Amino acid sequence: MTPNPYLWILPILPLAGAAINGFFGRQSSKKAITTVALIFSGAAFAMALFLAAGFSAASAPYYYDLAHWIRSGSFQVDFSFYLDQLSLVMLLVVTGVGFLIHIYSVGYMADDDGYYRFMSYLNLFMFFMLTLVLAKNYLVMFIGWEGVGLASYLLIGFWFTKDSAASAGKKAFIVNRIGDFGFLIALFLMINHFGSLDFTRVFDAVRLLPVETAGAGTLTAIGLLLMVGAAGKSAQIPLYVWLPDAMEGPTPVSALIHAATMVTAGVYMVARSSAIFDRAPMALTVVAIIGTLTALFAATIGIAQTDIKKVLAYSTVSQLGYMFMACGVGAFSAGIFHLMTHAFFKGLLFLAAGSVIHGVGGEQDMRKMGGLRTYMPWTFATMGVATLAIAGIPPLAGFWSKDEILWQAYNSSWVYWLIGVITAFITSFYMFRLMYMTFGGEYRGAAVQAAHGHDDHAHGDYHGEPHESPWVMLGPLVVLAILSVVGGFVGYGNRFEHFLAPVFQGASAVAPESSPETAKSTLEYLLMAVSISVAGLGWFLAYLLYSRRPQLPASIAASLGSLYTAVLHKYYIDELYAALFVKPLIEGSTTILWHGIDQDVIDATVNNSAAAAREISDNARHMQSGNLRSYAAWVAAGGAIVIAYMVWMGVR
Amino acid sequence: MVPLSYYLVLSGILFACGVIGFLIKRNIITIFMSIELMLNGVNLSFVAFAAQWYSLSGHVFVFFVMVVAAAEAAVGLAIIIAVYRTRETLNVDQVNLLKL
Fold it and tell me: Which end of chain B offers a freer environment for a tag, N or C, measured as fewer CB atoms within 10 Å?
């Protein structure tokens, strides 16, 4: 490992931007706020590029110990940073996509009163995300982990005067706490068993241990608890419920935090802990199963959603499931590859959706859109590219990463592959459905919407007719569209995998990753053909239902009856959680904790002791009559008692 | 020689008179005089003991008590005059502004 004394500057840059805008933004001009926010996020991106330029698969990781933190006997935790091939990929995604979304936000949030607040939060998010990615031990990672949760909370509830946004923020925060609880216990187990939280030291210790094939063991427990944390942050079953609600936040936030970067932190964490999972095959299987189920489950919900952002939200959950499936079958580099390409095309999809919402004056319901391709051709073109990418149409980015995952999944078990392919079909279907409903056909929205019904994006310059967004918003779209096209080629010929190989060198023990090139050719091309054809099938079906015969979906929905209703209501999972967890908690807190303990025990003790003191004093105050002779009488009586006592003692 | 007990009984009677006067009289001057009576009852027992045991300290105590009583008389009478000027009464039952 090579020390690099400049490593710590990278996360500090956006923090400085956040501090400047946060403290002085209220008084600053909009131009000054924009400059500060863009300079500091751009500088972080430039520095990341600079670091990447000198980095190859053979490079030794950089590290830097900034300061001591916890020193307790042999247990040490320092503020130290670490950059290897895996962190580098995350670093480029976070700073690159993050910088683009900063630029986009300049246009999207231009008319918002909280502009300085928004920019400050975005920078703050980047600081925490970089801390998470660059951490050298689990505790510093945990700081970043909690910090991005905070930034996510602040940004989901950005329009906090709106009740639904405020409660969506709280929901995200609380659901994440459940996951963090598992993460924390995993950290405690590590301290207990390895006496360290440093990545290198923990993994070195883990590699000396045997593989826990017989099922449960310490490493399996750590792995499962880490997965609980990852499921919270990365919105996997059963903790995914916060992510769709998080769409209450401004659209750039959805793109940056809830699609491209923060939600992938769980995948990053699992990949980072690959040494642990490598020794705990059962935990790895659980990761694969959760990922696979989530991918399918969320995709089916996505079919019936009518809110453009909700479709994308469920799509994100589903794609994250793909990444976990990849990690679960031991193909960590494939998971990270998909993470990267997903950041490009899903970030683009969200930004394009934001552009659409901006263009039609805050409307999010796709049933009130349609025909927008003539009004906003650039948005249509870029979003089309992203849709092709996510559907897995070659040669766009999504095809390469998704195909890699499906191939690795097939090597592990055909069940994963089958579900993956079905998910790919559904993904293709709902994405093209979104495209046809939004851009195809005729414009269905009211020509003049004086009052914004579903007003997510309150902006003043609505002209009554859909319009294309300004160039400051379209620029990032175009850049991301280019990346969505070419981003997949970094994985060509397994170059991406080789680049990450030093990080995952231990992981090949479980995954049959190093299959010889010759054996894979025929079968892999066959599987590739299958996945391309299901993507095409999904496209065709969407075209048939939403472009050729627009009246057909309603009748299909009617014939499906209760199944359709269940999907439309997201399988009633929110209602189930409300009945199972939320209601008992509220009831129990109200009757036992509030009325029972707080009012009847704690308050009663305080109130009753005060009442008793008052009662006694009330009786005793009659002694103080104010009459001089009664005081004299008390003195005389006291003297008499003393004398009587002394006489009695003397006589005795 | 008069036995010690006679002095002590007289001293007790004087003191009791003082206490009773202090408790039952309403005129503040009378109360004040009752206090002097109590002090002198005590003084009597001091000198009686001093004579009995041929000890000078009892006499010294009496002088101290007389000095303090004189000082007290000066201050107390001044207070009484001040009270009379403001309240125009010497009845302690009517001097009860501190009463609840």
Answer: N
Contact yes or no for B23 and A636 at CB 8 A: yes
Quick check: A370 and A443 in contact, CB under 8 A? yes
Q: Is residue B66 domain-resident? A: yes
Chain A residue with the nearest C-alpha to that of B97: A626
Collect all residues with Cβ–Cβ distance below 8 Å to A320 and sequence separation of at least 6.
Answer: A234, A235, A236, A263, A264, A266, A267, A291, A294
Size of interface A-B (CB pairs under 8 A): 29
Mutate to test the interface with A, among B23, B32, B38, B97 (most CBs of A within 10 A): B23
Domain with residue B57: its CATH number is 1.10.287.3510
Q: Is residue B75 part of a domain?
A: yes
pTM, entire model:
0.79
Count CB-CB contacts under 10 A for residue A414. Answer: 11
Provide the shortest C-alpha distance from residue B94 to chain A (in Å).
Answer: 8
8 Å CB contact between A524 and A407: yes
pLDDT in tens, A464-482: 678 888 888 899 999 999 9
pLDDT over threshold 60, residue A511: no
Q: What range defines the domain where residue B73 resides?
A: 4-94
Instruction: Report the complex ipTM.
Output: 0.79
Query: Domains in chain B: how many in total?
Result: 1
Residue B87 contacts A where some CB pair is shorter than 8 Å: no
Look at residue B100 and tell me if it is in a domain: no
Asked, for residue B99, whether it belongs to a domain, the answer is no
